[in-house]
């Protein structure tokens, strides 16, 4: 009962942290604890009043006869509720906020490319540089001093002592050779991170806040302040292992094996391989955690099986500490290592350790150290997957008793982990890797061989790098087979199914069903019924949306008008922007909306940008019909590449001429002018006008000639906003940026036109039953409720 009481209190603490997402969530946990204690107390008193005959003919209560002995003490439930309340206060206390001297307080307001203020930031490198997707070096810097670069027409700024963590990106050659603990000075431009401007987009501001940082620095030049000999650090050991394995296996096999041993966060794994594994549902293979910990402990205990328990405890603990230091103290690894320590202590004391209690205790210790980890996705997935292995694998293996034990276990482990992590994945990503379970079963032997071989090679590399490279060479074929296997599954039709991001309440309902199946016998016997309910909770909203939703979304995509029109399950995409827009704006939005194909695509060139965003979209989603207005001469070759890709996928490609109207689902589109340019859309009885950069004289000529009819909705660049609004008087005007003179904004505010700026308001969405809505404002409103 003591152990059960401790687990209940730990669960209360974890729930208290989780319910910080809800206003007064801690109070709710306290009330739940009080209510549970009262109900349990009444049951306790009722049981005492019911007499029973004892074996010797006497009378005894049900409580005395053993009924209720496994029931927790009401005082434990009350204590758990109180701990949950205190956890919510502790979380708020630990939420990082910038201090008075934090470097984010010195970011110039409105810092942009036209008025950049160069600064010199001195500090200590806090992480090993890594390569970003944009081929720049990235690392963390603990800032200590800030100086403004002297301008030709102004006085030099005063040097300031600063604090805080800084997210730094520099040209890759500038970052080469940097190491943690090194003192450097970086010349660059400070900026504050932006929140997500589009649905489904990456929230850079939230990411930095979770890391305790509130500003970034785009570096241009680095000066080394300490030219002394390198100080020893675990980064050198990691570097020695990675270099040895890359030398023996090459790229990408070498970094892949290193990532399976040390974790992808400690290794610069090529992004194409990383994305391949993530899309196929094998991201866990690149995350050092429980599997590697079990392997290390298993090898050590096997080698020391003839030694006494104390020796096994010491050597096992030493192995876990070394492994933890090499991986870089990641939450998932910390969880696995704490559970490993618990197993070692249980072995030394000759006591059986309850895995569930060990998991809850490990999570509580980590969340006491850093309560913010409760919202770390890696920590959440690691905890849920381990919980699934503990409570769900045994019953699955029992139901697969007709199979050989090895095969039953091979199926049960990935199935249990998938059951417990899938609701969270649907909430965050909205995508189901269709072949994930099958791929996990097939690839487990290869992953085991590579992990064991990688650990052996890493140990050898510590003593003799050439020997580590030689041993790593034996993993050439298994690593190639694994990459080819993942690549094969990723190319299968329907390799990932986008169902759209589910709501928090859907996720909670799914986990409630899972818990009922685990805890309640009636539900456990009817697991198929529970599975049908779970599927209905996910698929019925998807079906309803696909058959009823009509929505137009103007994405925040810089100076390019990018529109997504959803019409009862069909999707029309107008423009794609550059490669970054396709990868970081369009695809995440379509994925979050549960879109698995684009029915109609319309390509125009508004700002003479490249159209490589289409190639990004086509790599992930099929396009059924593609309409292209005449491209600029410099982009003809790119258009031909797009056409070839469409032909490979047997999609319809139709070149259009200026003035030619087309019907793409609910949209009737016509490019009025290609040189200015102007695209006219008729949607649901509304006239939309997308206008590029135009001069006042050109606008007046077009209005006088009648070429520009008054639209209900206008999209244009900021430079033409005032003239077009005054000339056309639309009901709604959307521009990419709000960087206008105050006088112009004042004049526009006096008009009847409602103004939106995607650079300020984020994506703009419209449905027939509601007004235009700004994404950032809607997100803030939802955050204030939750």
UniProtKB/TrEMBL annotation:
It is a multi-pass membrane protein. The keyword Secreted does not apply. It holds the Pfam family DUF4131. Keywords: Cell membrane, Membrane, Transmembrane, Transmembrane helix. Its main location: membrane. The keyword Transmembrane helix applies. Residues 261-523 form the ComEC/Rec2-related protein domain. InterPro entries: ComEC_N, Competence_DNA_uptake, DUF4131, RibonucZ/Hydroxyglut_hydro. The chain crosses the membrane at residues 6-39, 282-303, 310-326, 332-349, 356-375, 409-432, 438-463, 502-520, 527-546. It comes from the Bacteria. It is found in: Cell membrane. Residues 22-224 form the DUF4131 domain. PANTHER family: DNA INTERNALIZATION/COMPETENCE PROTEIN COMEC/REC2, RECOMBINATION PROTEIN 2. This is ComEC/Rec2 family competence protein. The lineage of its organism: Bacteria, Bacillati, Cyanobacteriota, Cyanophyceae, Nostocales.
């Amino acid at each position: 009962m003591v152990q059960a009481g401790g687990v209940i209190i730990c669960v209360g603490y974890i729930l208290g942290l989780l319910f910080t997402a809800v206003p007064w969530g801690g109070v709710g946990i306290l009330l739940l604890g009080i209510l549970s204690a009262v109900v349990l107390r009444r049951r306790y008193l009722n049981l005492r009043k019911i007499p029973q005959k004892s074996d010797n003919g006497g009378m005894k209560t049900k409580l005395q006869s053993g009924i209720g002995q496994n029931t927790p003490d009401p005082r434990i439930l009350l204590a758990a509720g109180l701990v949950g309340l205190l956890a919510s206060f502790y979380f708020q206390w630990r939420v990082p906020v910038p201090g008075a001297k934090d470097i984010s307080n010195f970011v110039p307001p409105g810092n942009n490319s036209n008025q950049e203020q160069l600064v010199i930031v001195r500090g200590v490198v806090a992480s090993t540089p890594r390569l970003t997707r944009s081929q720049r070096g990235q690392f963390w810097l603990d800032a200590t001093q800030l100086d403004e670069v002297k301008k030709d027409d102004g006085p030099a700024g005063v040097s300031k002592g600063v604090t805080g963590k800084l997210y730094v990106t520099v040209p890759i050659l500038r970052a080469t050779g940097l190491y943690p603990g090194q003192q450097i000075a970086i010349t660059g431009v400070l900026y504050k991170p932006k929140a997500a401007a589009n649905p489904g987009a990456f929230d850079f501001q939230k990411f930095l806040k979770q890391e305790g940082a509130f500003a970034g620095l785009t570096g241009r030049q680095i000066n080394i302040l300490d030219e002394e000999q390198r100080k020893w650090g675990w980064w050198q050991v990691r570097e020695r292992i990675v270099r040895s394995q890359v030398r023996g296996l090459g790229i990408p096999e070498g970094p892949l094996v290193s990532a399976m041993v040390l974790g992808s966060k400690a290794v610069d794994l090529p992004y194409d391989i990383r994305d391949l594994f993530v899309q196929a549902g094998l991201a866990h293979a690149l995350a050092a955690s429980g599997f590697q910990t079990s392997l290390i402990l298993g090898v050590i205990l096997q080698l020391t099986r003839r030694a006494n328990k104390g020796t096994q405890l010491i050597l096992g603990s030493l192995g876990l500490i070394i492994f933890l230091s090499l991986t870089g103290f990641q939450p998932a690894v910390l969880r696995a290592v704490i559970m490993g320590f618990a197993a070692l202590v249980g072995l030394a004391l000759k006591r059986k350790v309850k895995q569930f209690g060990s998991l809850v205790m490990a999570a509580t210790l980590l969340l006491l150290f850093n309560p913010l980890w409760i919202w770390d996705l890696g920590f959440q997935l690691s905890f849920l997957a381990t919980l699934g292995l503990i409570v769900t694998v045994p019953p699955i293996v029992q139901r697969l008793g007709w199979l050989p034990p090895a095969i039953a276990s091979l199926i049960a482990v990935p199935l249990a982990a998938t059951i417990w992590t899938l609701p969270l994945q649907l909430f965050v990503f909205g995508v189901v890797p269709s072949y994930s379970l099958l791929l996990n079963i097939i690839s487990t032997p290869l992953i085991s061989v590579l992990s064991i071989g990688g650990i052996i090679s890493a140990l050898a590399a510590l003593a003799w790098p050439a020997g580590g490279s030689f041993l790593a060479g034996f993993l050439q074929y298994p690593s190639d087979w694994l990459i080819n296997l993942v690549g094969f599954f990723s190319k299968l039709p329907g390799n990932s199914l986008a169902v759209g991001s589910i709501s928090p309440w859907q996720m909670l309902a799914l986990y409630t069903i899972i818990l009922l199946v685990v805890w309640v016998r009636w539900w456990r016997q009817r697991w198929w019924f529970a599975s049908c309910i779970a599927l209905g909770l996910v698929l019925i909203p998807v079906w309803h949306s696909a058959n009823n939703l009509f929505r137009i979304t103007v994405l925040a995509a810089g100076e390019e008008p990018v529109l997504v029109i959803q019409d009862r399950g069909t999707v029309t995409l107008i423009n794609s922007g550059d490669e970054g827009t396709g990868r970081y704006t369009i695809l995440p939005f379509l994925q979050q909306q549960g879109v698995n194909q684009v029915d109609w695509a319309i390509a125009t060139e508004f700002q003479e940008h490249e159209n490589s965003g289409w190639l990004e979209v086509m790599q992930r989603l099929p396009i059924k019909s593609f309409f292209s207005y005449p491209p600029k001469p410099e982009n003809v070759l790119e258009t031909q590449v797009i056409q070839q890709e469409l032909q490979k996928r047997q999609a319809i490609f139709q070149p259009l001429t200026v003035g030619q109207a087309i019907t793409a689902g609910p949209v009737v589109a016509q490019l009025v002018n290609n040189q200015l340019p102007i695209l006219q859309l008729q949607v649901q009885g509304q006239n939309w006008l997308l206008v590029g950069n135009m001069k006042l004289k050109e606008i007046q000529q077009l209005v006088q000639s009648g070429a520009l009819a008054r639209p209900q909705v206008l999209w244009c660049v900021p430079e033409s906003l005032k003239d077009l609004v005054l000339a056309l008087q639309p009901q709604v005007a959307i521009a990419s940026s709000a960087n206008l003179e105050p006088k112009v904004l004042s004049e526009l505010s006096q008009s009847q036109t409602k103004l939106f700026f995607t650079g300020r308001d984020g994506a703009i969405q419209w449905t027939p039953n509601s007004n235009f809505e700004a994404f950032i404002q809607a997100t803030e409103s939802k955050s204030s409720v939750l």
